[in-house]
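Morning!

This is the sequence you dropped in the shared folder:
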Amino acid sequence: MTEERKNYELIPENYEEEMLKRKKASKKSKGKISDSGDVNINSLMDILTILLVFLLKSYATDPINITPTADLELVRSTSLLQPEATVAVTVSKAAIVVDNRPVLVLKDGRVEASQKRGGEDGFFIIPLNRELVDAAERKRRLASVNPSVTFDGVCTIIMDGDTPYRLLTEIMYTAGQAEFQNFKFATISLES
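The structure's back. Tokens below.
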């Protein structure tokens, strides 16, 4: 027992203070360059990792990208539905665009008679049908390779609020002939 007491008596009274000083000194020296030339970059790596995760989370792609222009002012709505990735037909005052591919130029909000089957009274827009058939085929090919993608015949119509009803009817009829049976309309939320 006397030997055990001697071991206890060898511990200095200010032992805790010395340990705290050593810890502080070691923390200060961790951030500095050591004799071997190494730098402690753990903190920098933590910051970069957090920054990368933040940027990846904030980089979101919407299924529908709408570029506001002078001839395309969307209708406002109270709908809370989120847009889905579908074939998008954009109808402005000047043109019809399918998935960001220009299809047809409009004159005074109307399709020229030469671009429709049946002339002026026809509902079938020939260039629009061609582009929609191609879009449907692209979706089917993508669905054959990627099981998470399906062709469900849904078409999103993005149109100016002043689009004539006749033009909307012609577009929907033509899309129906290209196997698009279901339609969604893109609007701007009243909250934005």
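Headline: Helices lie at 2-9, 15-30, 42-58, 126-145, 165-177.

More detail when I'm at my desk.
O.
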